[in-house]
Amino acid sequence: MASRVQVAPAAPALPAGRETRRTDAGTEIIIYPPSGGLADRRAPVVMMLHGMCGDPLSICEFWNQAGREGSFLVCPGGNVACGGARDWSGSGEVKAAAIDESLAVVDKAYGTFIDHSKGDILIGYSRGAFAARDVVYARPGRFRGLILLGALMRPDAARLKASGIRRVVFAAGEWDMARPAMQRAAAALSGAGLPSRYVSLGKIGHALPDNLETILRDALRWIREAPPQ
Question: What is the CATH number of the domain that holds 104?
Answer without folding.
Answer: 3.40.50.1820
